[in-house]
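User: My instructor asked us to take a sequence, write out its structure as tokens, and then describe one feature of it. I'm not sure where to start. Here is the sequence I was given:
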Amino acid sequence: MAAGRTAGEGAERLVERFLAGWSHRTRQAYATDLQDFARVRGKTLADAVADLLESHQQGRRLILDFAVELRRRGRGRATVQRRLGTLSSLAEMAGELGVVEWSLEVPSDEEVASAAQARQGGDVAYFLPRNEAEIDRLDVQHYALQERLGANYLAPLEQPARILDVGCGTGLWAYELSAKFPDAHVIGFDLEVSKRPWPPTYRFVRGNLLQGLPFADGRFDFVHQRFLMAGIPVKDWARTMTELVRVTRPHGWLELVEMEFDIAPAGQATRRVFEMAWRLGRNAGLDTTGIIFRSLGERARRAGLIDVETREGTVSIGEWGGRIGSMMATDFRALFIRTAGLFEKVGVSEQEFLELVTAAQQEWEEHHSLSRFTVAMGRKPG
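Assistant: Let's start with the prediction itself. The structure tokens for your sequence are:
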């Protein structure tokens, strides 16, 4: 399909024509399927469909990503198959109308299971979606923290030769370090490949931190890890810290950044949203009480670092807080919307949860809500 606005308008007309061909009840069911696909993509329905029909290769990838996400949410096999079938039927109509010249096959259970395992890479507690919408959210989060700190790091670096970003996400932080230190070799480590294009001095290594780091002892001058409280169970933090220190060279620096998963002052809707999120987190063994957040510096010392410093701060949540507040509100809103289906596990329908998120946004503006972050840095002794 053509790119940009034209593609979106064409996709919107296609969806209208597709839904018009069914009975009222079936039309409602198919509309729900398509809206769920758009929500997972973090886009309007028209833009999500335009992406789906951009090419056969992309369509296959997106329908498989959607299947993995539905599986992660705990959707039943019948629901997954129906929603994938809706996308396939929509693509079939697009073929009949000459919009595309290919068909979109529904992935098999085996393909979905294999893709889910590949995306997890083993024993992973991280329960946020891994798709392009999540990439956008992580980039917004990066820019908000960067603007709040006034820098990408606080450690007193000189000219590091090797830099490791653990849990690199989109790769944006690492790319900017590559630009700042053009002679350094920068490595990103994560479950998912960093977005392209990569800087010439950047290399990506896929892996699961919970299974250890695949690097030699004392390899890096600077090791950086940020916002992994949603991925590291409390019981694994001591072992993780040992690994991070192990790959740091003598006299090298390790820097950790975490944000408390809470917002205050909080209204009734905000409190309900977080209480449900904490319940999900506890079920996965994650830190929902702030025990890791409050002890980052002490954990760095226990792992053997010296000259440890901890700096704490807050970020505004909401338009009231200017550019940073607006970005952080977008971050939290996107996080909750894209995980809305998970909250059915704690007895709240997806629609009810989304209504709570909308009410919570209004509370952030009324209460001038804030969220806290901590930066802990330390040096490995010689």
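For the description part of your assignment, you could build on this observation: Confidence is low (pLDDT under 50) at residues 1-6. Try explaining in your own words what that tells you about the chain.
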